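Budget justification note: compute hours in this period were largely spent on complex prediction jobs such as the one shown. Inputs:
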Amino acid sequence: MGVAFRRTARFGVPELFALLGAASFLAARFLPLLDVPFTCPFRALTGLPCATCGMTHAFVHMARGEVALAARSSPLGAALALAAWAYSALDLARAALGLPWPVLPERAWRALALSGLGAAALNWAWLVSRGLA
Amino acid sequence: MLARCAHCQKTFETDRYGVQACPHCGQQVHLADPAAMPPPSPAAPPAPEAAGPGAPPPWGPPPPPPPPDPAGIPAPFARRSELGFARSWIDTWKLAALQPSEFFRAVRVSDTGSAILFGAVAITISSWFQTLYGALMGAATRSMVDQMLRQMPQAQGFQNAWVMRWVSGGSALGVVAQLVAAPFLALAGVLVMAAVFHVLLLALKGAPRGFDATLTVVGYASAAHVIGAAPVPGLANLVGFVWYLAAVAIGLAGAQRIPPGKAWTATLLPFALVCLCCCGAVGIPLFAAFGRH
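Corresponding output:
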């Protein structure tokens, strides 16, 4: 499963995703997202958290450096925030320096996708078990 | 060399190329010089030699049409610099919304920038109209939402002036903020939805043409969101959303060259979960209202 590198345009789709990640950090850090009184409809209906419950809290706590609180809100959310912001920083630096883009084979992407779906399922199971406890 | 007249179809001997008179009928005949012609494409049959007995003449039947470009045909919106922004956008809208099967099977998937811009424009138009409708009908919406929120189990948390202003678009500042934020949220929406669909396609082994194809489909299929700009708030959104899902599923099957079953599964799976949440949001107040009477 080797990684190839190819030259890409200085600003393309990967950089749009990087900007999106950077924007999520700025929103989590500077906007009063936790003051919005939102209750998950799924939780209100069933009493159980949905698969994405706690993500906003995780992003906000991570942006403030409160790692333990972020992981307690949603382990997947904390990991996702970290991954998104690390990707943003690395890709924007790569684009600024004009370095080539690493191209993963399709098998690697598929493994990542399946890992992500598995992690989402595990995260949901953890949230539900915590809610029931 | 032997040549044949295009008019009387009779053959005659000549030693030069170019325009000359047919010795039988006197009509002007043009004999093209093979050395001056462009080289044949690899897929085309070899060009006949004009010289030599029995060789077919250079003015025979027209050559077969070139094979379709394997990279696909650029969408009209990708040619907006030559067609004009509005015309190319409308032409692409017609193709993506009304003929998604043919369009997404043939469209070039490497023009992702055009697809993202197209989708962002479509969603932004819809958002702007919805914001304006919300502002116009603010009072009615506010009272209805207020009524609904009071019946929610977490009523105290929802009775917040900030939320009410946001929901009803009550303040002018709120309306302006929504109008300004709409293009950025639309752009983020196209990217995030493409990523979600693509993760599911990868898990189903349904992404042989890569993320560019998925992103192109999501961008152009967002054409359907424009239906949400119709002055029938609620219903127009629902119709636009269902149309969008159908266009995405049909488009993924065509652009990724996968069976329709995989495309529909990847499209509907995330929305089945969201729908469950939304049904809960609508169902709770209704359940509470009916339970009270």
